[in-house]
Design goal:
By secondary structure, the protein is of the alpha/beta class. 43% of the residues lie in helices and 21% in strands. Strand 8 and strand 9 form a beta hairpin. The longest helix has 23 residues. Bound molecules: S-adenosylmethionine.
Length: 258
């Protein structure tokens, strides 16, 4: 890709995919994307990742290993239609509590409907709010998860500091995000799939290619594994590490508030 990734020094706040926008403009554009795709979001996730997002999300939950305890509280930020929160509650034998926080009411509405169907509503709270300004007291949660959300948040450094603030001492941060492919042939196949196929599937399934063009471009701009680990350390987290999934198409970053 001709476009270079953003470094740990910043730049995501003004990049809307490959377009440079003014600071303060990105969030509104991102919100339009997710309002448009909300109803088709889950089916498009399967199409875009050829179903692989399910295994990556399962990997995230295994790494978290949620406590089977009603006092265990997780905040799932940019939780959208609920995939991560549902898995956390199920993995805790339906004992833990998860708060699904998202800036977009359309995504949360789909999530709340899915939760009812799965009879998981008693273990979930849905909150419409911004990752950059969490409406919670300091030291409130045992874990903070965010899956495929952080690259959409304009000020990633601010969101990470908020994550640190609301976690209890001993709490865990887990971030699942598309990342930099580190296998020579896979990177070319992946680029071809992303830039040719995904926007076309998006148009065929939702009638609009533009949101999917943004999604694939935003993946290319997101800092690579090492740079993102640096950002997590800069927010105060300890023992920061990452695991690549599928040759780095996605990566799971972990940090602790110690
Ligand atoms: C790609 S979806 C991920 C949804 C879900 N976590 C999953 O893995 O399926 C990204 C989500 O980030 C949310 N988002 C974007 N900016 C946000 C912000 N500043 N604060 C909270 N959520 C945000 C969007 O509304 C959208 O629901």
């Amino acid at each position: 890709m001709a476009e270079s990734r953003t470094s740990a020094d910043g730049g995501m706040e003004t990049s809307y995919g490959f377009r440079e926008v003014a600071d303060g403009e990105k969030q509104g554009l991102v919100n339009e994307v997710f309002h448009k795709v909300a109803k088709r979001y889950d089916v498009m996730n399967d199409v875009m990742s050829m179903g692989m997002h399910r295994a990556w999300k399962d990997g995230m939950i295994s790494a978290l290993n949620p406590r089977k305890d009603p006092a265990y509280k997780v905040l799932d930020v940019a939780g959208g239609t609920g995939d991560i929160a549902f898995r956390i509650v199920e993995a805790s034998n339906r004992l833990a509590h998860a708060t699904v926080l998202d800036i977009n009411g359309s995504m949360l509405a789909v999530g709340a409907e899915r939760a009812e169907k799965k009879k998981l509503s008693d273990n979930l709270t849905f909150v419409e709010a911004n990752a950059e300004e969490l409406p919670f007291e300091p030291n409130s949660f045992d874990a903070y998860t965010i899956a495929f959300g952080i690259r959409n948040v304009p000020h990633i450094d601010v969101a990470l500091k908020e994550a640190y603030r609301v976690l209890k001492r001993g709490g865990r941060l887990l971030v699942l995000e598309f990342s930099e492919v580190d296998l020579p042939l896979l990177d070319r196949v992946y680029d071809a799939w992303s830039f040719n196929a995904i926007p076309k599937f998006g148009k065929a399934i939702t009638g609009d290619a533009e949101p999917y063009q943004y999604l694939v471009e935003s993946i290319c701009k997101f800092p690579n594994q090492q740079d993102f680990a640096t950002m997590i350390r800069e927010a105060g987290f300890s023992r920061v590490s990452f695991t690549n999934y599928t040759g780095g198409i996605a990566a799971l970053h972990s940090g602790w508030k110690l």
